[in-house]
Design goal:
The strands form 4 sheets. This protein has a 7-stranded mixed sheet with strand order 13-14-15-16-17-19-18, sandwiched between helices. Strands 3-2-1-4-5 form a 5-stranded mixed sheet, sandwiched between helices. Strands 8-7-6-9-10 form a 5-stranded mixed sheet. It is an alpha/beta fold. The chain is about 30% helix and about 30% strand. The protein is globular.
């Protein structure tokens, strides 16, 4: 590395995302990504513009700093894939940075204090971490965790700064607790500053790309409780529109007029269901990145649905549910098969999901279809609190269906 550390930073965990260039801890340029373009289309042109305006080239970079979440599946996968490509070509190491730590780093240049950096996780939850941030330095006071907003506010103390993505509906509570709200959006500039701070003080070392892991904003809701959630999945041969138990089932794209039926199935399947806004967001997301599907019986009635994401050569199952009296008819399998067909056509090589560590039935079932363990996330689930086992499916292998399905 040179006398000054030249850092290229990406923040793609949140919308709209940004890229930044920094010399040591000083940001010398930052570009917010356009909201009307896919992240995958806008990211590299933004990097080119940023470097061009600064008069430097890719070969001059010393460190690649990447926000690793919590954040959205699509954004994180695109950011990771982009950094992996640059790291391989340039031979430059990666500095993974928590999105919450990046928020605290940005606050440290705006006055500082005790900062509770937050990102709304939806469903009444929040990801939060507590930091002391001053003059460009950030110290972790409490490790990051996912909790209910209601529980979060009981921990807030007078004079603290609540920084990050705070919903309008929650901001009034800060005043009640004597705290200040700084609606600071996660930024690539904060990522660069946090990376430099940690490296310069020897807290962290840049890593090879293959050991960097990312953290999604929420678990896959298609896997938690196998029977009551209708979330058994697998790969089967045959058409997704074939009959089940003598009843014809067709798999189609979700439409706005389906949302009422989808929400009814969701609320009857899960103790902590997605709100309507989440399904509307999936329908509004760019075509191809979001894949919302529904299953209809021979009468055209909606009996199940699946929401998934495809990005940067990988895919994730976000939500899958089947009407209670239609489970074990193979509808879940047919929904997943249709999604996997789309993923395969898009060149996806791996599909991700999570299961509770205690859910051996799900683990055994997924294992029959080629899903294998890929890691563990401590205390990832709540009600009750429990670790998540990460499972991944290698799409380059052909796996036959086995066992019972929904």
């Amino acid at each position: 590395m040179g006398e000054q550390m030249l850092i290229l930073a990406l923040e793609t965990a949140t919308i709209p995302g940004s890229v930044a260039l920094a010399r040591d801890g000083e940001v010398i340029g930052e570009i917010e990504l356009p909201r009307d373009r896919y992240i995958s289309e806008a990211l590299l042109p933004a990097v080119d513009d940023l470097l061009g305006h600064a008069g430097v080239g890719l070969k001059d970079l010393d460190i690649l700093a990447l926000a690793i979440g919590p954040g959205s599946f699509t954004g994180l996968r695109v950011g990771l894939a982009t950094m992996k490509g640059l790291a391989i070509v340039l031979g430059v190491p990666i500095a993974p940075v928590s999105s919450l730590g990046a928020v605290a780093a940005a606050v440290s240049w705006r006055g500082g204090g005790v900062v509770r950096a937050v990102i709304d996780a939806g469903r009444g939850d929040v990801f939060g971490g507590v930091f002391r941030a001053e003059a460009g330095r950030v110290e972790t006071i409490e490790e990051e965790k996912r909790i209910r907003w209601a529980d979060f506010w009981t921990e807030v103390r007078s004079g603290e700064i609540i920084a990050g993505l705070v919903p309008e509906s929650e901001r009034a509570r800060a005043k009640d607790r004597g705290a200040l709200v700084d609606p600071l959006h996660p930024s690539a500039g904060g990522v660069a500053r946090r990376a430099f701070d940690r490296i310069a003080r020897g807290i962290a070392s840049p890593k090879a790309m293959d050991v960097v892991s990312i953290r999604y904003l929420k678990p896959s809701w298609a896997e938690e409780v196998l029977g009551e959630r209708g979330a058994i999945t697998g790969i089967v041969a045959g058409s997704a529109a074939a009959g089940v138990g003598g009843r014809g089932i067709a798999i189609e794209g979700m439409r706005p007029e389906d949302l009422g039926s989808v929400l009814a199935i969701e609320e009857s399947s899960f103790s902590n269901p997605w709100p309507m806004a989440h399904f509307k967001a999936e329908l509004a997301a760019p075509h191809g990145a979001s894949v919302p599907l529904v299953a209809r019986n021979a009468d055209g009635r909606l009996v199940g649905f699946l929401c998934g994401r495809i990005a940067a050569g990988e895919a994730e199952i976000l939500d899958l549910a089947v009407e209670a009296d239609r489970r074990r008819w193979g509808i879940g399998t047919r929904l997943l098969t249709a999604f996997l067909d789309k993923a395969r056509a898009a060149g996806v090589s791996r599909v991700h999901l999570e299961v509770r560590a205690s859910n051996t039935r799900a683990q055994l079932f997924y294992g029959r279809f080629g899903f294998q363990g890929a890691g563990r996330r401590p205390a990832y689930y709540r009600r009750p609190t429990e670790d998540a086992l990460l499972l991944a499916l290698d799409m380059t292998k052909t796996v036959a269906s086995a066992g019972q399905d929904v």
